[in-house]
Task: inverse folding
């Protein structure tokens, strides 16, 4: 029997993994901590990129898998998936008996982790609270904050908001975001591409010459507007087609409406044979960031454009409302879901490439270690009260 | 096809019903609203008092029943019950297609209602947010606030807290608590007991002479300390035994640990044959309040002692931490879980009977109508953002 | 209030719909019956062909939808999907209060329908019991028989087997299989193709000239050998590629392992650009049978090859064990999962086209009406006992 | 890594434990087997006697607990409990990776075990198939048979029926019933009562003098007639009251309707203060059998009266249909649910006490060892086909 704190981290989607990876490494190496990594939701599913494979090839041991994704391509299935995930998580926590559970950010199923831990009286640490975005993520994130006992936030802004929501000052720590740690590693390295993206990750569509300029697109459906998902992706596709620069397009994750997005993409691929886009399903976070670091501009509505790209100094065209409210640096311009506007702003941003300074808004690249240190030394309690 | 707003209210436990009953009546009668009443959780189960029967005998139609209580007498079963409840609620909301869902207060399963509504893009109204208590209820209540789109709070204090948590001012209304509406009806009536409690509700234990002074006890197990539930109930039992005044004891609800409490009570009943306690499982809210209004003092950890009894001017001995943080009036004194202290404070409070003034802290008795009016006219949206 | 029997039929997959469609029509028209159609499982999901859309365009009203498919691409998810389906079905049956529930054939999730009905004391009718196949279907089918109160079987052979399993003679009726009803309609009509398959159903791959000879392939993964799914589909693909006749390939359904099959097909499509195969996801049963009736030969492991094609006189190459044990007529030859053998047998069978007689083994084309009539007049009970 | 077969046995209720206990012991001791004991359903719940405690005090290690009981006191909750149990079992089997799963007899939730194992391609052994009873157990038992790969039956009659249902002869073994093993141990021992039942198990009601004659009653609600449960228990109570011999009454298990039964018993206890009945919730199988062996007669509808009492030679009055169809010896007479008839037959049977011969109908007392031996040496496969 060891006296190490048993830390159970739950990863439920590909993007969440990038947001926690360096923390997982630091927890695993920490002399006072023992890591139990639970992988669930879309992170286990092939057509959402099977993050579990990436996680294992990164050397992590997966302690438990929680298959909880209820199919339905509609909003009801998000609710049901969350219900099923609570059941799965409560079983896993019963078996693992963790001293701390860590829930990451604001995807809908993260509330399942939070509820299972809180109702079982297990201290809950929440990573990346206190940010502002809108859409369902907004509700999920702040609900996680109100359930959590420890808050590991990315920025000073976030810290102030969490405290203003009524959390004890002593329970909130600014660690930066672990995704910036990966960005730091990537930006420290030689600028040459030291791997073969097409050989490793395949993808479908146009060939890409990585010695030439390229764009990156990541565009997720917005769940509260999911019927418009197809229209929205088509506007972006049209802008990219018109700009006629080679483009790496990353497949959206498993929210309701992803099928509207998928259909728009499939239809585009059948209609336009000579476009310069290559579609990818998944990539290891480091490889993705290496490619991102060299991109002319990132287009879409991913938070990567706002967070990692602030640190990396990569220009971004942020489309629509998905990131509304999120603290942002000078690398970002905003566009509506309109092909012409997107097209014009991409041209503007390409001109910024190489001219932007590093912005430490979301961390200095040591978040993983800070998170592990806080989890190791914080005095946990599951009792709390609004501070006002 | 009607243009009325379809309002789906979910009641999951006996005490929640008292907290919403007059709002249900006002919604049902409102010309612009249509009521869909969902009953679930312990409110359907015989051994927790089957609130569903009371609800129907009050003249309400139950639109759907959600059996979601997973047995287990432990904390895991609270989590699983919540997971199952999300699945049940999402099915029901899919069938009912409500324009608004109403979730009541802060029991653990109310988060299931909130999550199902929010993930299905249905506007969510939360009744009785912004209060402060501690224990798991505290986390649940504020998480409900962060998920809800409309806040119907009981007091000015609560309004300020909800706004401080980052909710838009325009989404928060002070309505008072519907439980006070019932208290107003009761206190307006003749002081004579116009029904036969023993004939109507049975109960087991000592005979009660309602023309003589009596106490009321309501003591719930505290989920984060559930192993102590038996000890806690035994301290109260001992104090009541010693005070030797006839007592009406109301059975606790379905939280984990209720079996510790139950065992303490059963053991007491077998050990002491000549005690003056009668145990009840359930009573209609009006009948309960009528009896409460005439009680010398209420003992235990129920919020009724703090809320309704403020309005009624009934003295209360509040035991332990369950109501810690809750705004309270002059009718309340606090005790530890210690038989002697409870005993002494009961004596003090009995002397206060008849001398306390009405306190409108939790409402003026018109909350139900106000809630219905707000739900009828509020412009709902499911998009929101932290205000800071 | 009507005195009609309320008949709840549950359809959980595309192939099940063809097996029950004419019975649904006859139940709907029957003066003594009222139809409640429940659609669940993969029948609701786009990537499995969304049978629900076909059902509605055929004029049926779907009374309830049960989203129960748990993703996982493994055997555990079949079990979990069944567990979730029981919960969904029990809710639906509670709301619908049917007098009879009808479960169709032998897919894994049909046991969910059977268990929910039986445990709720609702008489259960099972369609297509008494057949012999192997694989998990075999266990599911006979378990359905042992739970069901009424047996509507396709053939005299099946009747004997159901009775030998201990069911009362009076509870077993030979109705034939409703899929043969559709085959009869199709074979009665003019041999000209009166619709445009490519315009209606799209599909991807080679163009098809329907005035020229063509093959049909339907090959499902076998769940108890699911790791071999990719190998098996590749052998068939190779045989089809070699025979070099235009081919309509129908996508497999949602069993575990379908991703092995899918991968084999995708890989083939990327490797061979000039093949003559067109891949379809779905087709209305009538359109499918019209095309099937004109095919040179059907290849794969679908029961259609053995059942409908017996009636239609279409030659079939049945591959592997999936249909082992099933009663078959002269139109069928068997092959291992070996490209060469499949190739040779396809050549043999093409020569049989037009020379086979109609075989009434699975019915005379009036099964739907017979099923409705039996359900309308049978005296149901939920009590039964083994007859020996 | 061991080469022992990993045998996962699932116990879901108090009575099932008695039916498998000696097999558990033999599996645990067998050099080629490794036991994984899963306890679920009502076996974990206090108010159904918490068999888990008994199991642990017997020295077994519980490998996993599956909380799956959904409250509801109605038939829907039986279905939902089974759905939830499938989910729980599939998780457990995924973690345990058993080589064989063992499901016991015919309670409704045993189908959850069978389905989870079969769908996950794990060989399934079924204990006590081939018997005939009626009610929902009948359907469950034979469905288990049709899903199972190995059949360990209690009698030659049962073996013939299982084979006649289409199972391979080589997959059916007559082992006798493990409950008879316990009966053998008890009947071999000294006739003196070597423990204090009241001290160990408490119970409520009349005092019992174990040196004087006494009756035993076990009466379960019948799920398909559950509204009559209260009437039925009242008839038996009236007969027992009239016969005026001291009686040990064992509380029913967790089927729907148990509350009708419970209410009848509670009402009786309040009405009649001087009855000679003592009510027990639970007892270890050995202690129960020791007491049973000395009883004048057993009354009710438990299978113990037919099985164990055949071996022990204890007279039995079997009431109602619950055991209809079950092979029985000379110790049993049948009664309707009618107080007078029950009363008269109890008198008849008391006169038989001490005059009945041992009947080996359900085994010779070595079933546990035989079951372990078969599981250790049988060549398992998950493929099977009807034999005709």
Result:
């Amino acid at each position: 029997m060891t006296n190490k704190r048993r830390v159970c981290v739950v990863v439920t989607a590909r993007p969440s993994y990038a947001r926690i990876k360096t923390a997982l490494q630091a927890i695993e190496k920490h002399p006072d901590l023992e890591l139990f990594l639970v992988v669930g939701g879309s992170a286990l599913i092939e057509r959402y990129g099977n993050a579990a494979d990436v996680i294992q090839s990164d050397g992590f041991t997966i302690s438990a898998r929680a298959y909880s994704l209820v199919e339905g391509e509609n909003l009801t299935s998000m609710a049901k998936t969350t219900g099923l995930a609570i059941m799965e998580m409560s079983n896993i926590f019963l078996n693992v008996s963790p001293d701390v559970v860590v829930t990451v950010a604001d995807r809908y199923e993260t509330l399942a982790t939070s509820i299972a831990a809180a109702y079982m009286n297990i201290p809950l640490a929440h990573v990346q609270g206190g940010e502002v975005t809108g859409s369902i993520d907004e509700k999920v994130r702040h609900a996680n904050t109100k359930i959590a006992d420890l808050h590991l936030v990315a920025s000073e802004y976030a810290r102030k908001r969490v405290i203003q929501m009524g959390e004890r000052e002593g329970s909130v720590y600014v660690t930066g975001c672990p995704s910036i740690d990966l960005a730091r590693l990537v930006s420290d390295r030689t600028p040459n591409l030291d791997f073969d993206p097409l050989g490793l990750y395949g993808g479908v569509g146009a060939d890409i010459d990585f010695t030439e300029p390229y764009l990156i697109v990541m565009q997720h459906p917005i769940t509260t507007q999911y019927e418009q998902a197809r229209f929205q992706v088509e506007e972006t596709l049209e802008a990219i087609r018109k700009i006629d620069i080679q483009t790496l397009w990353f497949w959206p994750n498993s929210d309701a409406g992803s099928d509207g997005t998928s259909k728009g993409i499939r239809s585009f691929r059948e209609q336009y044979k000579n476009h310069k886009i290559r579609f990818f399903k998944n990539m290891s976070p480091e490889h993705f960031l290496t490619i991102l670091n060299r991109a002319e501009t990132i287009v879409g509505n991913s938070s990567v454009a706002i967070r990692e790209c602030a640190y990396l100094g990569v220009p971004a065209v942020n489309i629509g409302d998905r990131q509304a409210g999120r603290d942002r640096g000078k690398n970002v311009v905003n566009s509506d879901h309109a092909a012409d506007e997107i097209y014009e702003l991409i041209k503007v941003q390409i001109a910024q490439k190489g001219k932007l300074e590093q912005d430490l808004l979301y961390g200095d690249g040591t978040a993983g270690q800070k998170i592990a240190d806080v989890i190791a030394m914080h005095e946990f309690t599951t009792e709390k009260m609004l501070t006002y």
In short: Chain C touches chain A through 16 residues (CB under 8 Å). Chain C has a mean pLDDT of 91. Chain C has 15 helices and 14 strands. Residues 111 and 184 of chain C are 30 Å apart (CA to CA).
